[in-house]
Amino acid sequence: MSEHLRTALSLANYGLPVLPLRKGKVPFGNCSACAKNACGGRPNMKNPGPCTCPAPCHAWAAATTDLATLTGPGWASAWTQAQAVAYHPGGAGLTVVDLDNAEAVTWARRTLPATRTVATTRGEHWIYRGAMQSANAVRDDVDIKSTMSYARWLGSGAGTMTALPDVVRALIVKKPATARPAPHGVSVSVPVGGGECRHRTPTYLARGIAMAEQRISEASSAVHTTVYRTFLAVLSTHGRCGCLTDTHVARLFTAAQAKGETARHCNDAWTNARTALGM
């Protein structure tokens, strides 16, 4: 049994949903049964859990506490290749404030209530009891990892875990239009003349997002470029008329991260696409 599998089983026994990470500290790609959305495209907003395949597919949604699944044949190959263990904070009722450098840590110490902290390569994870919506780049070098997200296991840390405070929940609240928008969101003015989108229908938008997810999921090479061009296409079609919501953007980011993109890569691609379109 590998060291990473032993760690995963220990965490699962404590109720922490876990999954293996491959080289680059990212989730394993989908198996053949889940490729190209053959399994129905899960996870999604209607069916947020993992599909019924035996492999650790769909990134964060694969995280589980089921020992039989973790040690089953579908996961065996992944554990032999695993470079680290991750967990789904929201699945355990937790929220991780990911502080990516010393400046972000300094900000947290001035601003946030003390809680359990875990040292990372470049900064710290601050872990609170309570789940919330995940969000990237809520401020410079600060991400929120909770529901529909994963965090790398780096040890139990130090300090007493405290309840999720309102000041952390407030970090994902949209700022006024005059403020600088978070990179993962969309903040654009509606068209003049009633604000109605000339092509907006629920079916049109739903199909467009599904096609964008599929395009990213099917990328076999040049994933960075595919993600950027897909973001560009979505923004050019829906970015100026108020169609996009945080839920739509989260779906695109989830698809990109399932292909190995980091949260930072997603943010950069989204920001660059907006800049290219003059948004």
Q: What does this 3D model show about the protein?
A:
By secondary structure, the chain is of the alpha+beta class. It contains nine helices and ten strands. The strands form two sheets. Strands 4, 5, 6, 7, 8 and 10 form a six-stranded mixed sheet that branches. It has a four-stranded antiparallel sheet with strand order 2-1-3-9. Helix 6 packs parallel to helix 8 and helix 7 crosses helix 9. It is globular and about 45 Å long. About 8% of the residues have low confidence.
Biggest beta-sheet profile: 6 strands, mixed
Shape: globular
Q: Please write the string of helix (H) and strand (E) elements.
A: HEEHHEEHEEEEEEHHHHH
Number of helices: 9
Briefly characterize the structure:
The chain is an alpha+beta fold and 279 residues long. The protein is built from nine helices and ten strands.
Question: Descriptors for this entry?
Answer:
globular; 279 residues; 4-stranded antiparallel beta sheet; alpha+beta; 35% helix
Write the layout of secondary structure elements.
Blueprint: H1 3-13, E1 18-22, E2 26-27, H2 67-70, H3 73-81, E3 84-87, E4 94-99, H4 102-111, E5 116-119, E6 124-129, E7 135-139, E8 142-145, E9 151-152, E10 162-163, H5 166-169, H6 202-217, H7 223-238, H8 246-258, H9 263-276
Parallel strand pairs: 6-10
Antiparallel strand pairs: 1-2, 1-3, 3-9, 4-6, 4-8, 5-6, 7-8
